[in-house]
Design goal:
Helix content: 40-55%
Radius of gyration: 19 Å
Structural class: alpha+beta
Order of helices and strands: HEHEEHHHEEH
Strand order of the largest sheet: 1-4-5-2-3
Number of helices: 6
Shape: globular
Length: 174
């Protein structure tokens, strides 16, 4: 009598090379490269609307429970809260946006730089964590010749996914 053939996924180590994109969080260098690549020629009120609605469309396709915010020069130009988001997402937006405003780069890059040094933003920045959050999801709106003029922020997913959604939208927008 033979033993039954096992059903379900294999239990041994994978055979062959990995087949997908690299896993794990992005490196400091990868995040810096994104920011260099995603500099805009201009950013108008109409651009804020187009980028914001693009983010809403992407989030709806994925049924992502996020809030989205775009500011320029301290003025909120776009805000949307999708089903499943909460007032806490707006608080996270404000905290992540402040990190971009203070450091001039994405909130995910700031947190990743601290982690690369073997510490955390909360331990080493000397900034109030109730006011600043170096978690992914806030990205600088940089305009060629002008520098950082605003922010685009997503909150509601894990930090890497918040960041990736913003980057995907900016890549399509550019």
């Amino acid at each position: 009598m033979t033993s039954p053939t096992p059903t379900g996924p294999p239990t041994g180590p994978p055979t062959g090379p990995p087949t997908g994109p690299p896993t794990g969080p992005p490196t400091v260098e990868e995040l810096e490269t994104q920011e260099l690549r995603l500099v805009l020629p201009h950013f108008t009120y109409e651009d804020a609307w187009a980028l914001g609605t693009l983010l809403v469309d992407l989030a709806r396709e994925r049924q992502a429970p996020v809030a989205i915010d775009i500011t320029r020069g301290g003025q909120q130009l776009f805000h949307a809260a999708l089903p499943g988001s909460t007032p806490d997402n707006d608080a996270w937006i404000a905290r992540k946006r402040r990190v971009v405003e203070r450091y001039g780069c994405s909130s995910f890059l700031v947190g990743t730089r601290f982690r690369a040094k073997g510490t955390t933003f909360e331990e080493s920045s000397r900034l109030d964590p109730d006011v600043y959050a170096a978690h992914g999801g806030a990205f600088p709106i940089a305009v060629r010749g002008a520098g950082v003029i605003g922010t685009v922020v997503v909150s509601g997913l894990p930090q890497a996914a918040d960041h990736a959604l913003v980057v995907e939208a900016l890549e399509r927008f550019v």
